[in-house]
Design brief:
The chain is built from 11 helices and 10 strands. It is globular, with a radius of gyration of 20 Å. The strands form 2 sheets. A 6-stranded mixed sheet has the order 1-2-3-5-7-10, sandwiched between helices. A 4-stranded mixed sheet has the order 4-6-8-9. The chain has 2 domains: about 200 residues, 2-enoyl-CoA Hydratase, Chain A, domain 1 (Alpha-Beta Complex), CATH 3.90.226.10; about 45 residues, Orthogonal Bundle (Lyase 2-enoyl-coa Hydratase, Chain  A, domain 2). By secondary structure, it is an alpha/beta fold. β2, α1 and β3 form a beta-alpha-beta unit.
């Protein structure tokens, strides 16, 4: 990955991915997209990593696509632009985040626009600085959401509110985003890093297999009926009942002490 575009660190069971093009408001480049892919893939395969945080440097979380580059492409004749150019070079980030079996937290430090907002919406939890501003700005560039926003936003805020935000491209502040359910919580900017880390550490204390199965169950349940979901989760439960962490969870409760999970 391009070191200057993405900073990737692992510490205490938490992997942090930081987009690092502050002069360009962390707009997507092949280096940033490739860096995110490599970081998520590494964190997913590392059993020491329990939780992933993604954030940005400077005034933006991610301002989305590089609009200047888009304008240059748009000025070219149609026959010089292949369909392949419109496809993500390594697959959709939304699928990468959803398929990752570890919780992904977006720490939205600033502006999140277009595909940058879609990336945040694809995360499992979103913590925003109260200076953050968010917009599905696609229509203002003559296009429609293509990074997962059309999928995630209606599920988070309801169809009518999603239509309003997508059809207008309006920018909203962090408090409004929290009110409508687009983000999980809002904190002062100086507390964002600590708040994301504190939540990640709290999650990381729990057993890896239980968290993995819980994430799978949540998203599978959104795409199926109740009976199928119950059958799916009961099968998971049978597997989890066999683990040492389940035994420790029940014994520690009876003994009125904090559990000491092996985090299998």
């Amino acid at each position: 990955m391009a070191e200057e575009d993405v900073i990737y660190k692992k510490e205490g069971g938490i992997a942090t991915i930081t987009l690092n093009r502050p002069d360009k408001m962390n707009a997507f480049t092949p280096g940033i997209v490739g860096g995110i892919h490599e970081s998520i893939e590494d964190a997913s395969s590392d059993d020491e990593v329990r939780v992933i945080i993604i954030t940005g440097t400077g005034r933006a979380f991610c301002s989305g696509a590089d609009v200047k580059a888009m304008a240059e492409r748009a000025s070219q004749p149609d026959d010089t632009r292949s369909r392949e150019e419109a496809r993500p070079p390594r697959g959709h980030l939304a699928l990468l985040f959803r398929d990752c079996d570890k919780p992904v937290i977006a720490a939205i430090n600033g502006v999140a626009v277009g595909v940058g907002l879609d990336m945040a919406l694809a995360c499992d939890i979103r913590i925003a600085s109260d200076t953050a501003r968010l917009s599905e700005a696609y229509v203002r560039r003559g296009i429609a959401p293509a990074g997962g926003g059309a999928y995630f936003l209606p599920r988070l805020v309801g169809v009518d509110k999603a239509c309003q935000l997508i059809f207008t491209g309006d920018m909203i502040d962090a408090r409004e985003a929290e009110r409508i359910g687009m983000v999980t919580m809002v904190v002062p900017p100086e507390e964002l890093e600590d708040a994301a880390r504190e939540l990640a550490e709290k999650i990381a204390k729990n057993p890896l297999m239980a968290i993995r199965y819980a994430k799978q169950a949540i998203y599978a349940g959104l795409e199926t009926d109740l009976k199928t979901s119950l059958d799916y989760t009961m099968a998971m439960r049978q597997e989890l009942l066999k683990t040492e962490d389940h035994k420790e969870g029940t014994v520690s409760f009876v003994e009125k002490r904090a559990p000491m999970f092996k985090k299998e």
